[in-house]
Specification:
This protein starts with 15 loop residues before the first helix and ends in an 11-residue tail after the last helix. By secondary structure, it is mainly α.
Length: 421
């Protein structure tokens, strides 16, 4: 990704101290919200703690089988803060805050050591998704994807290494290797580093955990049902708000709330078909990128975001923290907003605004209105919660379609003119 290119919009005032002040203020406010209104989001961290604490007895093959093996190693890091549950929670949050700060610093440097809208977007996006960002390890792939895009032009080997590390942690970033490979300059170095890190960690996982443990995340994912927050569950959740007696929401063996009742098997089939179609769309975008003699910073950023959005929306599961994945690359894309003329500038800014709306709707969906979705409150609250969740999913759908369209235009061999998105 190219360095920030000045455009018709002047950069905002404020050096390092101003950025530090904004980061500290927004993150401190997030911690206050976490400690008061959203304490329930720490449940997953306590789950990690229980599993890591029992690692000695269960062994690596029997620990956190729903995640790739390197996740177990990563989740062992907060134990340094102490073996207690509270100590682990503090250590985990501090680790996520550190990753957040790393990307914030990288964005500040890439903007010429000045405060920029790209940095403001990242600060606000994470804040609007909520304290959930610091109680799930999805901050890791979000920061890795953003860092990989930021390094794409000058250090393709680093892009490949970060992408390979992301794939070892969360699997889906492996698709980003196809997006980054559309640039012919540095393609060999990028793919070599990706393969070295990704396959190297896979080999280490095989040696330490065995074949069954290596593939357990895939078998776990295939067995999951229809998660209530997913796009494909939306029609049934709306129907449930009208007729609560026909559909049931239960906490499944896969540590997620899923919907059960008429139409679920059919929608699971539809989600599988949508995943296949999504992969075909992504492949078509990759092919178009390969056919372009020179992929711009805007084109590459849109391609990365489109790949992530399609992966997110087509899945039968959609946990709220997944929306964090879009934040890092979107912030990096904003750095290049003025490099291809005013029309792309306006289009990218509108995209950023849409993503901020999506982030806010995500925090409303979980945890603020979640009891309504679960049916643990009044009928009216259930309706309101279902409407907000549906709006979040429709917003994500609209953003995904817009990203695919804009990526297609930006990957033309010649510089495109774009209409208002």
């Amino acid at each position: 990704m190219e360095e920030h290119v000045p455009d018709e919009e002047p950069r905002q005032r404020g050096g390092g101290l101003a950025v530090v002040g904004l980061w500290v203020a927004t993150r401190a406010l997030s911690m206050i919200v976490l400690a008061t209104a959203e304490r329930l989001v720490v449940g997953d961290v306590f789950y990690y703690w229980r599993k890591i604490s029992a690692l000695g007895e269960a062994g690596l093959p029997g620990t956190l089988r729903e995640y790739p093996t390197p996740v177990v190693w990563f989740l062992s890091l907060p134990q340094v803060a102490g073996g207690s549950r509270t100590g682990y929670l503090v250590g985990f949050i501090v680790l996520m805050l550190a990753l957040d700060a790393v990307l914030t610093y990288a964005l500040w440097r890439a903007a010429g050591r000045r405060r920029d809208r790209a940095l403001d977007f990242w600060l606000l996006y994470v804040f609007l998704v909520g304290p959930l960002c610091y109680t799930r390890f999805d901050m890791v792939p979000a920061v890795l994807a953003g860092g990989a895009l930021l390094a794409a032009r000058r250090r393709p080997w680093l892009t490949g290494a970060l992408t390979g590390l992301g794939a070892a942690i969360k699997l889906w970033p492996a698709l980003l290797a196809g997006a980054f490979a559309v640039r012919w300059r540095g393609r060999g170095a990028m793919l070599g580093a990706f393969a070295g890190v990704g396959f190297g960690l896979a080999a280490l996982s095989l040696v330490t955990g065995g074949v069954s443990r290596l593939f357990s995340p895939l078998t776990w994912q295939s067995g999951r049902g229809l998660q209530i927050e997913s796009v494909w569950a939306t029609p049934l959740m709306v129907a449930r708000a009208v007729d609560p007696g026909t559909w049931e929401v239960r906490y499944s063996a896969f540590q997620a709330y899923e919907v059960f009742g008429p139409g679920v098997p059919a929608l699971l089939v539809v989600s599988t078909a949508a995943t296949v179609v999504g992969l075909l769309v992504t492949a078509a975008l990759f092919v178009r990128g390969f056919r372009s003699p020179e992929v711009s910073a805007v084109g590459l950023g849109l391609l990365v975001l489109a790949t992530i959005a399609v992966t997110t929306i087509t899945n039968k599961t959609l946990s709220p923290q997944y929306l964090l994945w879009l934040g890092g690359p979107a912030a990096v894309l904003l750095l290049a907003r003025g490099s291809q003329g005013p029309q792309w500038h306006r289009s990218i800014v509108r995209l950023a605004v849409s993503l901020l709306v999506l982030a806010l709707l995500t925090q409303l969906t979980y945890p603020l209105l979640y009891n309504g979705i679960l049916g643990r409150s009044s009928r009216g609250f259930m309706v309101v919660s279902t409407v907000v969740t549906s709006l979040r999913n429709l917003t994500l759908l609209a953003i995904t379609v817009a990203l695919c369209r804009q990526a297609w235009l930006a990957l033309r061999p010649s510089r495109p003119r774009v209409d208002a998105a």
